[in-house]
Design a protein that fits this description.
By secondary structure, this protein is mainly α.
């Protein structure tokens, strides 16, 4: 089977998860800001197909919720989201507009439902607007980002991490953690599950994140794929779900 009450990440939690141990205080603060559920990108309004899995009965308790979310992380995230996020980060490092455009288009082509595509564009728009309001990006980054038409969320997320002096591995870990946290939040609201159960899922699945990050760091281009049929089906069926709380 394919299968957060939202939690503020603390410094000690990040250290236990194996990240943020060699960062400056400023970069650590930026990392926490990027990971925080207070980041105004609207991530809380999306379930990425999980709501349909709950409606269909595939996810109904702690075990099936943990299985679904864990499978999405290990099957989809480790082979698609995280490797592309890494390549976008490196392309921004080199200020390589062609590579940024290529991986942005590659990623968007892999968002295989209309809701999934709308989600990544909306979150990218919100984060891009936030960064322009904060005015923390160098002028050359602002200029290059202005040339992108409807970029994907990883495209804007990766350059945000770069400008805030967050390392590529810490960025990947934080991105995966944010997804995990939002998925647990969605399942707690919709099944519903209690707060302690939600924290148990978070604690258990957080332990696999370091290995997923390492896998993404080593994955060659030819092995990047979004093949995760149950997730694709859930996303497509959510588009016609009669009653729903989430936008995907």
């Amino acid at each position: 089977m394919l299968q957060l009450d939202i939690t503020i990440i603390t410094t000690s939690m990040l250290i236990r998860m194996g990240i943020a141990t060699n960062m400056s205080s400023a970069s650590l603060s930026r990392l926490l800001q990027l990971a925080s559920p207070m980041l105004p990108v609207g991530a809380y309004s999306y379930s990425q197909g999980l709501e349909w899995a709950i409606e269909s009965g595939d996810v109904s308790n702690i075990n099936t919720a943990r299985q679904w979310i864990g499978d999405v992380l290990s099957t989809y995230f480790a082979h698609f989201e995280l490797p592309i996020l890494l390549r976008l980060y490196k392309a921004w490092q080199q200020m390589d507009g062609l590579q940024i455009q290529y991986w942005d288009e590659f990623y968007q082509a892999g968002r295989d439902s209309s809701e999934a595509l709308a989600e990544t564009r909306q979150m990218a728009y919100s984060l891009l607007r936030l960064q322009r309001d904060l005015a923390t990006w160098p002028s050359q980054i602002v200029l290059l980002s202005g040339s992108l038409q409807q970029p994907a969320f990883p495209t804007v997320y990766s350059v945000s991490a770069l400008c805030w002096e967050i390392s590529d591995s810490d960025m990947l870990h934080t991105y995966a953690w944010s997804f995990l946290e939002n998925q647990v939040s969605a399942v707690m609201k919709t099944v519903p599950l209690g707060q302690v159960v939600g924290q148990r899922i978070l604690s258990e699945l957080a332990m696999i994140l370091p290995s997923l990050v390492e896998q993404a760091l080593q994955l060659p281009d030819e092995d990047i794929h979004n093949f995760c049929p149950a997730l694709s089906i859930a996303g497509c069926r959510h588009e016609t779900q009669y009653s729903r709380l989430f936008r995907s």
